Amino acid sequence: MPVRVKIDRSKCVVAHFCFFYASTVFIPGEGGKPVVAPEYAVNGVEEGVVPDELYEQVKEAERHCPSRAIRVYRE
Ligand code: SF4
Predict the structure, then answer these.
(1) How much is the pLDDT for 58?
(2) How do the domains of the chain map onto residue ranges?
(3) Which residue puts its alpha carbon closest to atom 4 of ligand 1?
(4) Which of 25, 28, 51, 58 has the smallest count of CB within 10 Å of its CB?
(5) What number does CATH give the domain 3-74?
(6) Please, what is the Cα angle at 57 between 16 and 24, to 5 degrees?
(7) What is the pLDDT of residues 30-63, one digit of tens each?
(8) Model pTM score
(9) Residue 72 in 3-state DSSP?
(10) What pLDDT score was predicted for residue 3?
(11) Which atom from ligand 1 is nearest to the alpha carbon of 68?
């Protein structure tokens, strides 16, 4: 089951937890704020689809993001 991830970069406070928990999915973009890595990105840099094997990693990033800028859900 694919997993959709969304980053609201306007909410991001650059706390960097997402890079720690899901470093293959979230990579630093302009201003140090995360973007979705090109291999997973859809509809621009703030949204992506990742394989189910990465669910726990991206979910951990969502849980630890202090500004709730990351959303993760199974489709
Ligand atoms: S964990 Fe949240 S606040 Fe921190 S860099 Fe990632 S999206 Fe931004």
Answers:
(1) 98
(2) 3-74
(3) 15
(4) 51
(5) 3.30.70.20
(6) 65
(7) 999 999 999 999 999 999 999 999 999 999 999 9
(8) 0.95
(9) strand
(10) 98
(11) 2
